[in-house]
Amino acid sequence: MNVHISASRSPAPVLRVEGLSKQFEMHHLKRTLFAFENIEFELGEGEFILLRGENGAGKSTLLRTLYRSYLPRAGHAYYHTSEGVIDLASAADVDIAVLRRREIGFVTQFLNARPRVAAEEIVAEPLRLVGMPHVEALAEARRWLAAFGVKPQLWPAYPSTFSGGEQQKVNLARALILPQRLLLLDEPTASLDRSARRALVERLAELKASGVAMIGVFHHPEDVAHLIDREIQLETIRIADEPDDVAE
Amino acid sequence: MAAAYFDGRATGVERQPPRLMLAEPILTMRGIARSYGDVRALAGVDATVYPGEVLGIVGESGSGKSTLLRMMNLEDTPDAGTYHLALPGHEDRNLFTLDRFERRMLRAHHIGIVYQNPHLGLLMNHTSSGNVAERLLIAGKRNFAELRERARESLDASEFPIERMDARPRELSGGMQQRVQLAKAIALEPAVLLLDEPTTGLDVSVQALVLDTLKRLQRDRRITMVLVSHDLGVIRTMADRVMVMRRGEVVEQGLADQIFQDPQHEYTQQLVHAKL
């Protein structure tokens, strides 16, 4: 157990994580990289958990494991949907895909821009996927691009040519345009200027007030200090560096 | 428990993980096996496709990915295995039991395909609009004005320049030929659109435009797609879920980001690392 929980209270449950562990098997090196072990916590509606720990302690890995970009090695992450409880650690891929479309969001510092798709179309896409007409979705997308400080002349341009900071803003606008039930935030403020950071924190506060549950890693936690309900401290665990130290 | 479950995934066995049943499959294949002489092309492959998604099938030459796609297009019958499409108003039966005529009708109405080689999908000396209309004719459309209008609409949706709709495919560039194939494939809103290396051999910039068209069609029309490619970049751009094949078997499958960020099987790790 390498988790310390600093405080606790209990609104309607969104996520209950039990004994969650992750390690990477690197076949070509015949090595196992241990990321985190035996994580336990609960998260309720409108709650905000901050993940703390040194570089390499597994903060981003934990977020990616909950989003199922990484497969956990053991444990459970019981997620309460409107249609029942599902274990994110072992749910079918198709259910995860549906949940990602409907209610679980992931915000990262990196934009995986598709070639030749305009910024405003990228931002509008989540709304279009839930059936909003094109014109309305586009108007909403532009509102969010403006809120994050992306200049109007960039809205119809392809973000693959943007600077890191501008790409990040497009990414945030896309990730936050559709209210989610659970939001995983992986250093969303990294490489953002001050006004964009302010817009982001305002949006997070709004989402939290509307009941969105959030888990986040922040480079500058002071930005979101007023939103934090609890903190989880992850500690770096051993890295199997020797070939004969491989598990199994 | 979870470890055993994920070990099952890494061996390519189709798992039966907990389901909320948030989506029902549109295409289900079970135990597809096919040998050509001594060559085992498919060794009992399972595949499931859900409405509106893009399933990417990746693997090197000889992995069986194109053979599997041809099975989905009912061009061949496996030695063993079943194939079901969930089509409203249709009796649910193993499609491999259909005769040639029934297969032709089912393909015309419900399955679209785009081949890497446009010669397989197009009549090169007929007009582009004629190629699309031919598809509609097979499906029983006879009104000339309607045929032309629907061909035009379908070419337009495939982002083909309408002013060239009466040009013959042999007069067109590779990218444009693929758009004609695409227009033909989507003319009747198929239950599933099969794409066999649709951008292989095109210039990178043309490839990006064709992929963008496909992405747009998927978003705007919710067309379900199965995309076969040896190009991991194409699969990464397009697919929601990915199946990795080698020597006629599925070695691993998962959500696209998981396959690329946290591949489990040794072969998938090699493939992904070789690319990155």
From TrEMBL, chain A:
Record GO terms (molecular function): ATP binding; ATP hydrolysis activity; transmembrane transporter activity
Keywords: ATP-binding, Nucleotide-binding
SMART domains per the UniProt record, alphabetical: AAA
GO cellular component: plasma membrane
Pfam families assigned: ABC_tran
Domain of life where this protein originates: Bacteria
Domain ABC transporter, residue spans: 15-246
PANTHER family on file: IMPORT ATP-BINDING PROTEIN (PTHR24220)
Family: Belongs to the ABC transporter superfamily.
Protein's recorded name: Alpha-D-ribose 1-methylphosphonate 5-triphosphate synthase subunit PhnL
Organism expressing this protein natively: Xaviernesmea oryzae
From TrEMBL, chain B:
UniProt KW keywords: ATP-binding, Nucleotide-binding
SUPFAM superfamilies attached to this UniProt entry: P-loop containing nucleoside triphosphate hydrolases
ABC transporter domain segment(s): 27-272
A Pfam family it matches: ABC_tran
GO terms classed as biological process: organic phosphonate catabolic process
One Gene Ontology term of the molecular function aspect: ATP binding
Entry's family note: Belongs to the ABC transporter superfamily.
The name this protein goes by in its record: Putative phosphonate transport system ATP-binding protein
Organism: Xaviernesmea oryzae
